[in-house]
Design a protein that fits this description.
The complex is a heterodimer of chains A (315) and B (292). In chain A, 28% of the residues lie in helices and 14% in strands. In chain A, helix 1 runs parallel beside helix 2 and helix 2 runs parallel beside helix 4. Chain A contains nine helices and ten strands. Chain A has a single domain, classed as Alpha-Beta Barrel (TIM Barrel), CATH 3.20.20. By secondary structure, chain A is an alpha/beta fold. Chain B has a single domain, classed as Purple Acid Phosphatase, chain A, domain 2, CATH 3.60.21.10. Chain B contains nine helices and twelve strands. A six-stranded mixed beta sheet of chain B has the order 1-5-6-7-9-8, covered by helices on one side. Chain B has a six-stranded mixed beta sheet with strand order 4-3-2-10-11-12. In chain B, helix 6 links the parallel strand 6 and strand 7. Chain B is globular. The relative contact order of chain B is 0.18. Chains A and B meet through strand 1 of A and strand 11 and strand 12 of B.
């Protein structure tokens, strides 16, 4: 959108129970934990404009998750028979975590689907042999979702930095050539309709021979502008009916994300991938403790999930 | 305590969250899902209270009764327990003669009445008519219908004078009722009337979800959380059809709409088919809280 955005009203998103105009704030209950995310660490090889994670080569606010920590959560899922379907990894750049391959092996060996969100640049390509070995053993149980912020080099690099396009295209091509299960995450920060965006990505995929259906919202996931300082409405218990949106379709109804803060003794569970840092949203250290209602008391809850329909899972 | 008499069971001070659910209504699959959800929320049986009507419309009266009896929770006597326990001729819901509820209740009641064994009926007869507990220094009373009557329907839209009458009569900070089948929390100054809804049938909101609540201490405050419960409603409905129970209730399990709204006040009738959302009502300590 090219319209001038208003700054977020400071009276909003303060009381977890009540909105600025005194209405009961909407909440979401965990219907069934389907996808458990691990944030592998906030370090990334690049720095993108308005990255909601603020990931960069310097941001180590979220430490590298260790293999033993991932294992402990998988053990809890197995022990409690939680029927989780998918284990997903985001960062930072997950392939910068020194134990990512071991984690993927463990997840897949236990029979879960695995998803990695990556920029498909050098850190991923450094693991080519290991990834091919995993593909050999587990076939399509592993999917990789590559961030391509725009279908043109110019706009992609406006967000992701100079010369980030060619290595990303190399990575995307390598994944396609080796028949990895593939999805793409794009953004809609420009004055373009979703249709224009999907058409543009479609042409890119055709040119580069990338087997992603641009019209399938699960294969090409488009995210809105991620500026948390822009004004958004608060969500009340009445909004669901007015908007025709069911709370059960929100990410926090079926997902949780584990993060490890720098210097912390142990990881902590957050309601979704969009709120890694806000300690008001911490749900406890284990998954049993994380079965709590989530109060939609953050601008992201309104903008991306209730109003924007953002979903970070390809299914 | 003697059978068939009104008695109050005081659970004393409870620690940690308390889970409340109403009306299993012979719906075994929903009851099993409720127990799993309680485990997932880490709430032990001693902190779980059922507001009664274990047996009613659905297909598994005996197994549902066994599931509740074997869970180790506290159950308040509903009008159905009163009727089955006393081997009465009807469910005691208080439906007016000739209404759709009245006609259908004759069918499911006869079915359930034939299924229940003497041990189950004895258990029903021994249930308390009222349960009390304290949580964060606030005193709660749990009843099936109202404090005045086991089969009084108290909805959010029911005359508030009735709720205030009961809060005064029982001299408690909050009353938790069942029987009506739709969840709500309503403040009266610093006192509350709460209904957790029921797990045996949907809440007339056009969705197959059923409802329960968690009353959770939060510092000095108390949060009253109303949760949806998802379960295999299609299997529960087909079990009813196999047993040739009234199709109106089997259909209700699937489409979330009551077969009739005879007992509902106008305010609730106006909300038919409007999907209920999970909610948290915060009951702040030492503070006047306005109703929504």
């Amino acid at each position: 959108m090219s319209v001038t955005s208003r700054a977020l009203d400071p009276r909003k998103f303060r009381d977890p129970h009540v909105t600025a105009d005194g209405q009961q704030r909407a909440v979401v209950a965990l219907t069934h934990l389907t996808t458990l995310w691990f944030n592998t660490g906030s370090l990334c090889n690049i720095t993108c404009v308005n990255c909601y994670m603020e990931s960069s080569p310097k941001n180590d606010a979220l430490a590298y998750m260790t293999f033993a920590e991932v294992q402990a959560y998988l053990d809890e899922i197995d022990r409690e028979n939680m029927r989780v379907e998918e284990i997903a990894f985001t960062g930072g750049e997950p392939f910068m975590n020194p134990n990512i391959i071991q984690m993927l092996e463990e997840v897949l060996a236990r029979g879960y689907k695995a998803l990695v969100l990556s920029n498909a640049m050098k850190p991923m390509l450094n693991k080519r042999d290991e990834l091919l070995a995993i593909k050999e053993r587990h076939a399509d149980a592993l999917s990789i979702r590559v961030s391509v912020d725009h279908f043109t080099r110019e706009r992609h690099e406006d967000i992701r930095g100079k010369n980030t396009w060619p290595p990303m295209v190399d990575g995307l091509r390598w994944l396609a050539e080796n028949k990895f299960k593939l999805a793409v995450a794009g953004r809609t920060c420009w004055d373009e309709s979703e249709e224009q965006g999907r058409t543009g990505y479609g042409k890119l995929f055709e040119t580069e021979n990338i087997p992603v259906d641009p019209n399938d919202p699960g294969s090409l996931v488009l995210f809105p502008e991620m500026d948390a300082d822009v004004d958004v409405p608060e969500i009340t218990t009445h909004c669901w009916d007015i908007l025709g949106v069911a709370p059960e379709t929100m990410m926090c109804a079926s997902s949780r994300m584990v993060v490890k803060r720098k210097g912390a003794d142990k990881p902590v569970v957050m309601p979704c991938t969009l709120l890694p840092y806000d300690t008001n949203f911490e749900l406890g250290h284990d998954l049993a403790q994380s079965d709590k209602m989530v109060k939609l008391n953050h601008p992201h809850c309104a903008k991306f999930c209730v109003l924007g329909g953002a979903s970070c899972s390809p299914d | 305590m003697t059978d068939n008499s009104f008695y109050v069971r005081d659970l004393g001070p409870l620690q940690g969250p308390v889970l409340i659910f109403g009306g299993p209504y012979s719906n075994l699959l929903a009851t099993q899902a409720m127990r799993e959800a309680a485990a997932s929320l880490n709430i032990p049986g001693e902190n779980v209270i059922c507001t009664g009507d274990v047996v009613a419309y659905a297909g598994e009266p005996a197994k549902t009764t066994d599931a509740i009896m074997g869970w180790g929770i506290t159950t308040v006597m509903g009008n159905c327990e009163e009727s089955f326990g006393g081997e009465a001729d009807d469910c005691g819901c208080g439906f007016e003669e000739g209404t759709a509820c009245d006609v259908m209740s004759r069918q499911w009641y006869a079915y359930a009445n034939a299924e229940l064994n003497p041990e189950q009926r004895a258990w029903m007869r021994g249930l308390p008519s009222q349960v009390t507990f304290t949580l964060n220094s606030r005193r709660f009373a749990v009843v099936h219908g109202s404090a005045a009557s086991i089969n009084e329907f108290v909805f959010e839209g029911t005359d508030n004078a009735i709720k205030q009458r009961d809060l005064d009569a029982l001299n408690v900070d909050a009353i938790i009722g069942g029987h009506a089948g739709v969840p709500f929390t309503q403040a009266f100054g610093d006192r509350f009337w709460h209904n957790a809804g029921v797990i045996g049938m949907p809440a007339n909101d056009g969705t197959p979800r059923v409802w329960f609540s968690v009353i959770r201490p939060s510092g000095d405050d108390i949060e009253i959380e109303i949760y949806p419960l998802n379960y295999d409603y299609a299997a529960a409905a087909s079990s009813m059809r196999e047993k040739r129970l009234p199709d109106g209730y089997a259909k209700c399990m699937e489409d979330g709409l009551w077969p009739n709204m005879d007992v509902m006040p106008e305010a609730e009738r106006a909300k038919v088919g409007v999907a209920i959302a999970p909610s948290i009502f915060q009951w702040r300590a030492q503070q006047q809280v306005a109703a929504e």
